[in-house]
Design goal:
Blueprint (H helix, E strand, L loop, with lengths): L1 H11 L4 E5 L59 E6 L5 E3 L3 H13 L4 E5 L4 H17 L4 H8 L16 E6 L6 H11 L5 E3 L6 H4 L7 E4 L2 H10 L3 H5 L3
Parallel strand pairs: 1-2
Antiparallel strand pairs: 2-3, 4-5, 5-7, 6-7
Helix pairs in contact: 3-4
The structure holds zinc ion.
């Protein structure tokens, strides 16, 4: 039964239209510490509207790519399109978040903190592979297929329901040669919102997000929304009113 379920998930999975940009000279997020190494020509400025907004007005969030909700209840929207830009370490992210991401990393480095994007965009197939690996690991521990599938769900999001498939969610850790993961997590916790990124799975909000605290997982929502979410210490679910 579960096997059929997973097959259906795989078959009905959203096919994201993916274009990979590669600009060898400005994708220096990984190692380069120069301050001016991003260019704005690989993102479209009009998708970056920062018109002021209040969560209290009745703005319709549904059309804003920055606020797409993906969790165990909400799958990646159908026909979701992504333009990807590839970082120098091979990780790809949505090109629309690239300028803010670059600025954030440049500013962190100026303060002696050296972040690295360790996970960015993930295809539906990669998510499926992660799920299968997790199921296999539980089977190898002696669990039945059905139990292994249930256990895996505690660790890996179902394909189609991982924020990483949006390309605007990132796992950010440290360049271990220069600082510790905790240095990075602390800096991000205090500063990421200034660049449009929110801590997506905060400590103490597990009952809302359904995900354990992940100090490395940041989600782009744009600077306006991020400032509001940060100052209220709320989750994306609470901000959208869908707890
Ligand atoms: Zn993540």
């Amino acid at each position: 039964m579960k096997k059929i379920f997973f097959t259906i998930i795989a078959i009905t999975a959203i096919v994201a239209t993916v274009k990979i940009f590669t600009k060898s000279d400005d994708l220096n997020l990984y190692n380069d510490s120069s301050a001016d190494n991003f260019s704005a020509d690989n993102f479209s400025a009009d998708s970056f509207s920062t018109d002021s907004f209040s969560a209290d007005d009745n703005t319709d969030f549904t059309d804003d790519w920055r606020l797409i909700l993906v969790n165990s209840q909400n799958a990646i929207p159908e026909n979701y399109n992504i333009d990807l830009v590839q970082l120098s370490n091979g990780v790809s992210v949505d090109s629309r978040i690239y300028p803010d991401l670059q600025q954030m990393f440049d500013d962190a480095r100026k303060e002696g903190v050296y972040p690295v994007v360790t996970e960015g965009y993930r295809t539906n197939q990669q998510q499926q592979d992660m799920m299968n690996e997790k199921i296999d690991s539980f089977i190898n521990e002696g669990y039945s297929l059905e139990v292994a599938q249930n256990l895996a769900l505690d660790w890996v999001a179902l394909p189609g329901k991982s924020e990483h498939e949006l390309g605007i969610a990132l796992d950010i850790n440290a360049d271990a040669d220069f600082c510790s993961d905790n240095d990075v997590y602390d800096w991000l916790a205090d500063n990421a919102y200034k660049y449009g990124f929110i801590l997506r799975y905060p400590c103490g909000k597990e009952y809302i997000t359904g995900i354990d605290y992940e100090p490395w997982h940041y989600r782009y929502v744009g600077t306006d929304y991020a400032s509001q979410i940060y100052s209220k210490r709320i989750t994306l679910e609470e901000f959208l009113g869908v707890e």
